[in-house]
Specification:
- Chain B: Keywords: Membrane, Transmembrane, Transmembrane helix.
- Chain A: It holds the Pfam family SSF.
- Chain A: InterPro entries: Na/Glc_symporter_sf, Na/solute_symporter.
- The complex is a heterodimer of chains A (502) and B (71).
- In chain A, helix 19 runs parallel beside helix 22.
- The N and C termini of chain A lie far apart (57 Å).
- Chain A is built from 23 helices and no strands.
- Chain A has 502 residues and is an all-alpha fold.
- By secondary structure, chain B is mainly α.
- Chain B has one domain.
- Chain B has 3 helices and no strands.
- In chain B, helix 1 packs antiparallel against helix 3.
- The longest helix of chain B is centred in the N-terminal third of the chain and has 21 residues.
- The chains are: A mainly alpha (502), B mainly alpha (71).
- Chains A and B meet through helix 5, helix 10 and helix 12 of A and helix 1, helix 2 and helix 3 of B.
Chain lengths: 502, 71
């Protein structure tokens, strides 16, 4: 439980976020303001928002737990798993999406392939995001229940009320600007824990020496590259093929909640710079989430559940006041994930489902209202479905794992769509459907195909590769698109020189 | 095949060199981008070395490569 000063910090944080978010209500007058912040935001705010949305409280606990079990190789997910992909996104994909005035990734897929591809991609994201919302509401409630002693339903409604209010009124501008404050709180809380933990274990060298002498299972704890035959989920082959080549790119280029932020930039330079600035900040994330897990090996050796590493470190290392700040940092991670899901799902529904299928050609205020109502409906759905997490404790991991299987095929059609003019609508559609089916098949029969625990990196690579091959094969057998259909949708070296209209 | 057994002979040191080479390759590709393109969106008179996105990218890649070299 928290001390008095901790309560004060947490309550002040929650009220502060609500007021800050509501302040941005005055900037929302159109659907472009609501979904794209009126294309007026600076790179530094977007970069911070990308980073804080990507890392949630559940990841804090989960990654620290994995660092406790497997060592520094977990850092690959932010280091090699983000930076190269963010540079590719910044210099190639984001300028196309930004110049094209797009709101969603499925919108690009719809223009490049056809409406079916757009709808499949959009509906899949909407379903996953909506399910994720309930899980995150439950996680917030459990945190508030354990640390503040609030009843679960009061906790769920409080979280939904605070995040829902500022997202409903302020749209993506409120989401991004509250993310900036959440980022700062997360970094202050996280670094306080890292520095105090380092002091507790007697410094970095002392910690390395102690862990290295703890037995053969810790022999590779400080090797960022794990051998191909490791039993951990992170062999270097999986990191290179599954993470670096596929999942990282799919996440940074094909994830609506990430890309939508860059589309709010005030000009093309800010859009590119936001990704590169975000990639620089991402390099610090492993320090915040991985190092406490490593230091817990020394301070709390022999934990049966690695996910207990971070809570144990907070309990044993941090003084009153900083516990409250760390809790606010956790809560910041959850709030930033929830507000991103709300706004991105509202954008996907309004732009990819409502506008093309339910009411075409309505005035802009109508779509703004639809976006706001969708946000409200999602809040209700999230609150209503949140108890599922209590009945099925593994649902968060299940949702995240399944989302990772969707990413290989999505990246394959995005990559070929933008770099190969010959790709056709039937190539894209068949690659998406068969690729997702293949990923599900590999997952169901994973014991027969793979030797490592949880082979999601390998599955994403092989489903990407099959989608890539299917797309090429079917495209070559079907009628190619005309030059008019491809205008502004396929990479051309002219974009690097001067033609802003591509 | 699904487990990349055909790469089992590659040592961890060689694998690390593959990652470092990858960063080097990305760095070269970034340097090849036209300077005009990385400044797109900024007025000509406001273009300075500190808002050259090539420089930002190379710094990020250099830090990342040094982390990999260290571990």
């Amino acid at each position: 439980m928290l001390a008095g000063i901790d309560y004060f910090i947490v309550i002040a944080y929650i009220i502060g976020m609500l007021l800050l978010g509501l302040y941005f209500k005055k900037y929302v007058n159109s659907s472009e303001d609501y979904f794209l912040g009126g294309k007026s935001l600076p790179f530094w705010a977007i970069g911070m928002s990308i980073v804080v949305s990507d890392i949630g409280a559940l990841d804090f606990v989960g990654v620290s737990g994995q660092a406790y079990r497997y060592g520094v190789s977990v850092g690959n997910f932010d280091w090699v798993g983000s930076v190269p992909a963010m540079l590719l996104a910044a210099f190639i994909f984001i300028p196309y999406f930004w110049r094209g005035g797009m709101y969603t990734i499925p919108e690009y897929l719809g223009r490049r392939y056809n409406q079916k591809v757009r709808t499949i991609a959009s509906v899949t994201w909407i379903l996953f995001f909506a399910l994720d919302l309930g899980v995150l509401f439950w996680a917030s409630a459990v945190l508030l229940n354990v640390l503040m002693g609030w009843p679960i339903w009061i906790s769920i409604i409080s979280t939904a009320g605070v995040v829902g209010l500022y997202t409903y009124f302020g749209g993506i501008t409120a989401v991004i600007m509250t993310d900036v404050v959440q980022f700062i709180i997360m970094f202050i809380g996280g670094f306080a824990l890292v520095f105090l933990s380092l002091y507790e274990v007697g410094g970095w060298d002392n910690m390395v020496e102690k862990i290295s002498t703890m037995g053969p299972e810790y022999r590779n704890h400080f090797d960022i590259i794990q051998p191909q035959d490791t039993k951990s989920p992170f062999p270097w082959t999986g990191i290179l093929f599954g993470l670096t080549f596929v999942m990282a790119n799919a996440y940074m280029i094909g994830n609506q909640s990430i890309v939508q932020r860059c589309l709010t930039a005030k000009n093309e330079w800010h859009a590119k710079a936001s990704m590169i600035f975000g990639s620089a900040l991402k390099m610090f994330i492993p320090i915040l989430v991985l190092f406490p897990g490593l230091m817990a090996v020394v301070v709390h050796p022999g934990l049966l559940d690695g996910d207990q590493a971070l809570p144990m470190m907070i309990k044993s290392i941090l003084p009153p006041g900083l516990v409250g700040l760390m809790f606010a940092a956790f809560f910041a991670g959850l709030m930033s994930s929830v507000d991103s899901l709300l706004n991105s799902t509202a954008t996907l529904f309004t732009k990819d489902i409502y506008e093309p299928f339910i009411k075409k050609g309505a005035d802009d205020k109508h779509y703004l209202k639809v976006g706001q109502i969708t946000t409200l409906v999602l809040l209700v759905v999230g609150v209503a479905t949140s108890p599922i997490s209590s009945d099925f404790p593994g649902i968060y991991v299940a949702i995240q794992t399944f989302m990772s299987y969707f990413q290989g095929p999505i990246f394959a059609i995005l990559l070929l769509g933008i770099f190969w003019r010959r790709t056709t609508e039937w190539g894209g559609l068949s690659a998406l459907v068969i690729g997702i089916g293949f990923a599900v098949y590999l997952n169901v029969f994973k014991e027969q195909f793979f030797t490592i625990e949880d082979p999601f990196l390998y599955i994403s690579w092989w489903s990407f590769l099959l989608s890539f091959i299917i797309n090429i094969t079917v495209s070559l057998l079907t009628k190619k698109h005309t030059e008019e259909q491809l205008e502004g949708l396929v990479f051309s070296s002219k974009i690097l020189v001067k033609n802003k209209n591509l | 095949m699904f487990n990349f057994d055909w790469l089992s002979g590659v040592s961890q040191e060689t694998a690390k060199m593959i990652f470092l080479s990858l960063y080097g390759l990305i760095g070269v590709l970034v340097l090849l981008l036209p300077t005009e393109y990385v400044y797109e969106g900024i007025a000509k008179e406001d273009r300075h070395w500190y808002n050259n996105l090539k420089l930002w990218s190379i710094c990020v890649l250099a830090i990342l490569a040094s982390i990999y070299y260290h571990f």
